[in-house]
User: Which sequence fits this backbone?
Protein backbone atom coordinates (compact mmCIF):
# COMPACT_ATOMS: atom_id res chain seq x y z
CA UNK A 1 0.00 0.00 0.00
CA UNK A 2 1.11 3.54 -0.67
CA UNK A 3 1.37 5.76 2.44
CA UNK A 4 -0.32 9.14 2.35
CA UNK A 5 2.86 11.15 2.53
CA UNK A 6 4.15 9.79 -0.78
CA UNK A 7 1.39 11.69 -2.52
CA UNK A 8 2.05 14.79 -0.45
CA UNK A 9 5.77 14.70 -1.29
CA UNK A 10 4.98 14.32 -4.99
CA UNK A 11 2.67 17.31 -4.91
CA UNK A 12 5.17 19.36 -2.88
CA UNK A 13 7.90 18.69 -5.47
CA UNK A 14 5.58 19.54 -8.36
CA UNK A 15 4.48 22.70 -6.56
CA UNK A 16 8.08 23.84 -6.19
CA UNK A 17 8.65 23.18 -9.90
CA UNK A 18 5.60 25.35 -10.57
CA UNK A 19 6.98 28.17 -8.40
CA UNK A 20 10.35 27.86 -10.15
CA UNK A 21 8.67 28.07 -13.56
CA UNK A 22 6.63 31.10 -12.58
CA UNK A 23 9.68 32.97 -11.28
CA UNK A 24 12.25 32.11 -13.97
CA UNK A 25 10.21 32.23 -17.15
CA UNK A 26 9.71 35.53 -18.89
CA UNK A 27 7.12 34.46 -21.42
CA UNK A 28 3.65 35.01 -19.96
CA UNK A 29 2.26 31.83 -21.53
CA UNK A 30 4.86 29.70 -19.75
CA UNK A 31 4.12 31.53 -16.50
CA UNK A 32 0.49 30.49 -16.96
CA UNK A 33 1.64 26.90 -17.51
CA UNK A 34 3.47 26.98 -14.18
CA UNK A 35 0.31 28.23 -12.48
CA UNK A 36 -1.61 25.34 -14.02
CA UNK A 37 0.88 22.86 -12.58
CA UNK A 38 0.48 24.44 -9.13
CA UNK A 39 -3.31 24.17 -9.30
CA UNK A 40 -2.93 20.50 -10.21
CA UNK A 41 -0.79 19.80 -7.17
CA UNK A 42 -3.48 21.36 -4.99
CA UNK A 43 -5.89 18.88 -6.52
CA UNK A 44 -3.58 15.95 -5.75
CA UNK A 45 -3.45 17.07 -2.12
CA UNK A 46 -7.21 17.50 -1.82
CA UNK A 47 -7.91 14.09 -3.31
CA UNK A 48 -5.22 12.38 -1.24
CA UNK A 49 -6.55 13.83 2.02
CA UNK A 50 -10.08 12.92 1.02
CA UNK A 51 -9.12 9.38 0.05
CA UNK A 52 -6.99 8.63 3.09
CA UNK A 53 -8.66 10.48 5.94
CA UNK A 54 -12.25 11.36 5.11
CA UNK A 55 -13.61 8.64 2.85
CA UNK A 56 -15.23 6.77 5.72
CA UNK A 57 -17.24 9.80 6.79
CA UNK A 58 -19.10 9.55 3.49
CA UNK A 59 -18.83 13.21 2.50
CA UNK A 60 -17.50 14.22 -0.90
CA UNK A 61 -15.86 17.54 0.00
CA UNK A 62 -12.51 16.55 -1.52
CA UNK A 63 -13.92 15.54 -4.89
CA UNK A 64 -16.27 18.52 -5.17
CA UNK A 65 -13.51 20.94 -4.18
CA UNK A 66 -11.24 19.42 -6.85
CA UNK A 67 -13.99 19.77 -9.46
CA UNK A 68 -14.46 23.43 -8.56
CA UNK A 69 -10.71 23.96 -8.89
CA UNK A 70 -11.02 22.53 -12.42
CA UNK A 71 -13.67 25.15 -13.16
CA UNK A 72 -11.54 27.94 -11.68
CA UNK A 73 -8.50 26.77 -13.67
CA UNK A 74 -10.47 26.68 -16.91
CA UNK A 75 -11.82 30.18 -16.30
CA UNK A 76 -8.35 31.43 -15.37
CA UNK A 77 -6.75 30.03 -18.51
CA UNK A 78 -9.47 31.37 -20.79
CA UNK A 79 -9.25 34.90 -19.38
CA UNK A 80 -5.46 34.77 -19.06
CA UNK A 81 -4.87 33.71 -22.64
CA UNK A 82 -7.43 36.27 -23.83
CA UNK A 83 -5.48 38.95 -22.02
CA UNK A 84 -2.16 37.68 -23.38
CA UNK A 85 -3.43 37.73 -26.97
CA UNK A 86 -4.93 41.17 -26.46
CA UNK A 87 -1.62 42.42 -25.05
CA UNK A 88 0.26 40.81 -27.94
CA UNK A 89 -1.95 42.66 -30.41
CA UNK A 90 -1.04 46.01 -28.86
CA UNK A 91 2.59 45.50 -27.92
CA UNK A 92 3.68 42.73 -30.36
CA UNK A 93 5.21 40.88 -27.43
CA UNK A 94 4.22 38.38 -24.76
CA UNK A 95 7.41 38.69 -22.73
CA UNK A 96 6.64 39.87 -19.21
CA UNK A 97 9.53 42.37 -19.18
CA UNK A 98 8.07 44.22 -22.18
CA UNK A 99 4.60 44.57 -20.66
CA UNK A 100 5.48 47.50 -18.43
CA UNK A 101 2.76 50.01 -19.32
CA UNK A 102 1.78 50.34 -15.64
CA UNK A 103 5.34 51.02 -14.53
CA UNK A 104 5.59 54.38 -12.78
CA UNK B 1 7.53 -3.03 -2.34
CA UNK B 2 4.23 -3.82 -3.92
CA UNK B 3 3.19 -3.34 -7.52
CA UNK B 4 1.15 -0.26 -6.64
CA UNK B 5 4.18 1.37 -5.03
CA UNK B 6 6.27 0.60 -8.10
CA UNK B 7 3.64 2.13 -10.38
CA UNK B 8 3.45 5.18 -8.13
CA UNK B 9 7.21 5.69 -8.14
CA UNK B 10 7.50 5.29 -11.92
CA UNK B 11 4.64 7.70 -12.47
CA UNK B 12 6.07 10.19 -9.98
CA UNK B 13 9.45 10.06 -11.73
CA UNK B 14 7.86 10.68 -15.13
CA UNK B 15 5.72 13.51 -13.79
CA UNK B 16 8.57 15.26 -12.00
CA UNK B 17 10.92 14.93 -14.98
CA UNK B 18 8.21 16.32 -17.24
CA UNK B 19 7.73 19.24 -14.84
CA UNK B 20 11.45 20.00 -14.74
CA UNK B 21 11.70 19.82 -18.51
CA UNK B 22 8.71 22.15 -18.75
CA UNK B 23 10.47 24.73 -16.62
CA UNK B 24 13.83 24.42 -18.34
CA UNK B 25 13.27 23.66 -22.02
CA UNK B 26 13.89 26.57 -24.31
CA UNK B 27 11.24 26.17 -26.99
CA UNK B 28 7.74 27.15 -25.90
CA UNK B 29 6.00 24.49 -27.92
CA UNK B 30 8.14 21.78 -26.33
CA UNK B 31 7.39 23.23 -22.89
CA UNK B 32 3.67 22.93 -23.63
CA UNK B 33 4.11 19.29 -24.69
CA UNK B 34 6.04 18.54 -21.50
CA UNK B 35 3.20 20.18 -19.59
CA UNK B 36 0.81 17.73 -21.28
CA UNK B 37 2.94 14.83 -20.06
CA UNK B 38 3.02 16.25 -16.52
CA UNK B 39 -0.76 16.70 -16.55
CA UNK B 40 -1.16 13.13 -17.72
CA UNK B 41 1.03 11.99 -14.85
CA UNK B 42 -1.27 13.87 -12.47
CA UNK B 43 -4.24 12.06 -14.06
CA UNK B 44 -2.52 8.73 -13.37
CA UNK B 45 -1.98 9.89 -9.77
CA UNK B 46 -5.71 10.54 -9.50
CA UNK B 47 -6.24 7.01 -10.78
CA UNK B 48 -3.93 5.67 -8.09
CA UNK B 49 -6.06 7.54 -5.54
CA UNK B 50 -9.05 5.62 -6.96
CA UNK B 51 -10.76 8.83 -8.02
CA UNK B 52 -11.60 7.48 -11.47
CA UNK B 53 -14.04 10.21 -12.41
CA UNK B 54 -11.55 12.94 -11.57
CA UNK B 55 -8.84 11.15 -13.56
CA UNK B 56 -11.03 11.22 -16.66
CA UNK B 57 -12.05 14.84 -16.05
CA UNK B 58 -8.37 15.68 -15.74
CA UNK B 59 -7.62 14.20 -19.16
CA UNK B 60 -10.65 15.78 -20.80
CA UNK B 61 -10.44 19.25 -19.27
CA UNK B 62 -6.72 19.77 -18.85
CA UNK B 63 -5.22 17.87 -21.75
CA UNK B 64 -8.21 18.14 -24.04
CA UNK B 65 -9.06 21.78 -23.47
CA UNK B 66 -6.53 23.79 -21.46
CA UNK B 67 -3.38 22.38 -23.07
CA UNK B 68 -4.87 22.86 -26.54
CA UNK B 69 -5.80 26.43 -25.63
CA UNK B 70 -2.21 27.04 -24.53
CA UNK B 71 -0.89 25.54 -27.78
CA UNK B 72 -3.19 27.82 -29.76
CA UNK B 73 -2.01 30.85 -27.78
CA UNK B 74 1.60 29.91 -28.51
CA UNK B 75 0.87 29.65 -32.21
CA UNK B 76 -1.03 32.95 -32.25
CA UNK B 77 1.76 34.90 -30.59
CA UNK B 78 4.95 34.90 -32.58
CA UNK B 79 8.25 36.32 -31.44
CA UNK B 80 8.18 34.66 -28.07
CA UNK B 81 8.62 31.07 -29.18
CA UNK B 82 12.15 30.89 -27.88
CA UNK B 83 11.99 31.71 -24.21
CA UNK B 84 15.21 32.99 -22.76
CA UNK B 85 15.59 33.29 -19.07
CA UNK B 86 18.20 35.30 -17.27
CA UNK B 87 21.00 32.84 -16.72
CA UNK B 88 22.81 34.99 -14.19
CA UNK B 89 21.67 35.66 -10.64
CA UNK B 90 17.92 35.41 -11.12
CA UNK B 91 18.16 31.70 -11.97
CA UNK B 92 19.79 30.92 -8.62
CA UNK B 93 17.45 33.17 -6.64
CA UNK B 94 14.36 31.44 -8.01
CA UNK B 95 15.90 28.02 -7.38
CA UNK B 96 16.51 29.06 -3.77
CA UNK B 97 12.93 30.33 -3.40
CA UNK B 98 11.52 27.08 -4.83
CA UNK B 99 13.76 24.97 -2.58
CA UNK B 100 12.78 27.00 0.50
CA UNK B 101 9.11 26.41 -0.33
CA UNK B 102 9.79 22.69 -0.82
CA UNK B 103 11.75 22.48 2.43
CA UNK B 104 9.02 24.25 4.36
CA UNK B 105 6.33 21.94 3.02
CA UNK B 106 8.39 18.82 3.70
CA UNK B 107 9.24 20.01 7.23
CA UNK B 108 5.57 20.53 7.99
CA UNK B 109 4.82 17.16 6.42
CA UNK B 110 7.26 15.09 8.46
CA UNK B 111 6.22 16.60 11.79
CA UNK B 112 2.60 15.72 11.02
CA UNK B 113 1.64 12.36 12.54
CA UNK B 114 -1.12 11.34 10.14
CA UNK B 115 1.20 11.19 7.13
CA UNK B 116 1.71 7.47 7.63
CA UNK B 117 -1.99 6.78 7.07
CA UNK B 118 -2.86 3.90 4.76
CA UNK B 119 -5.97 3.35 2.71
CA UNK B 120 -8.73 0.91 3.32
CA UNK B 121 -10.24 -0.86 0.30
CA UNK B 122 -13.18 0.97 -1.19
CA UNK B 123 -16.69 -0.34 -0.73
CA UNK B 124 -19.08 -0.49 -3.66
CA UNK B 125 -20.99 2.55 -2.35
CA UNK B 126 -17.79 4.61 -2.20
CA UNK B 127 -16.92 3.75 -5.80
CA UNK B 128 -20.28 5.01 -7.03
CA UNK B 129 -19.75 7.97 -9.37
CA UNK B 130 -23.47 8.76 -9.28
CA UNK B 131 -23.06 9.93 -5.70
CA UNK B 132 -20.96 12.86 -6.96
CA UNK B 133 -23.71 13.93 -9.34
CA UNK B 134 -26.39 13.64 -6.70
CA UNK B 135 -24.31 15.61 -4.21
CA UNK B 136 -23.65 18.37 -6.78
CA UNK B 137 -27.35 19.01 -7.36
CA UNK B 138 -28.50 18.49 -3.79
CA UNK B 139 -29.63 21.73 -2.08
CA UNK B 140 -28.38 20.25 1.18
CA UNK B 141 -25.10 19.44 -0.50
CA UNK B 142 -23.14 21.44 -3.06
CA UNK B 143 -25.84 23.06 -5.22
CA UNK B 144 -24.79 26.64 -4.47
CA UNK B 145 -21.04 26.14 -5.19
CA UNK B 146 -22.06 24.32 -8.38
CA UNK B 147 -24.26 27.17 -9.58
CA UNK B 148 -21.70 29.81 -8.59
CA UNK B 149 -19.02 28.00 -10.56
CA UNK B 150 -21.31 27.92 -13.60
CA UNK B 151 -21.77 31.69 -13.30
CA UNK B 152 -17.99 32.04 -12.99
CA UNK B 153 -17.54 30.09 -16.23
CA UNK B 154 -20.11 32.27 -17.99
CA UNK B 155 -18.39 35.42 -16.75
CA UNK B 156 -15.01 34.06 -17.90
CA UNK B 157 -16.51 33.25 -21.32
CA UNK B 158 -17.95 36.73 -21.79
CA UNK B 159 -14.86 38.39 -20.36
CA UNK B 160 -12.37 36.54 -22.53
CA UNK B 161 -14.41 37.18 -25.68
CA UNK B 162 -14.60 40.88 -24.82
CA UNK B 163 -10.89 41.11 -24.04
CA UNK B 164 -9.82 39.05 -27.03
CA UNK B 165 -11.95 40.80 -29.62
CA UNK B 166 -10.42 43.52 -31.76
CA UNK B 167 -11.98 46.87 -30.90
CA UNK B 168 -12.23 49.22 -33.85
CA UNK B 169 -11.16 52.82 -33.56
CA UNK B 170 -8.90 52.26 -30.58
CA UNK B 171 -5.36 53.48 -30.44
CA UNK B 172 -2.93 50.69 -30.92
Assistant:
Amino acid sequence: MIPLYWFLILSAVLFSIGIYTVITRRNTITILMGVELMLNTANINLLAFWRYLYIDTGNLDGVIFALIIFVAAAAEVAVGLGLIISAYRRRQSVVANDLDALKG
Amino acid sequence: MTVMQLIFLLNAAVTIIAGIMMSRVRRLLHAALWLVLALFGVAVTFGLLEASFLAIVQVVVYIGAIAILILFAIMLTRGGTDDTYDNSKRWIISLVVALIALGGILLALFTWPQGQALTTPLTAAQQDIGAIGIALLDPEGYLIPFEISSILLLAALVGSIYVGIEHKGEEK
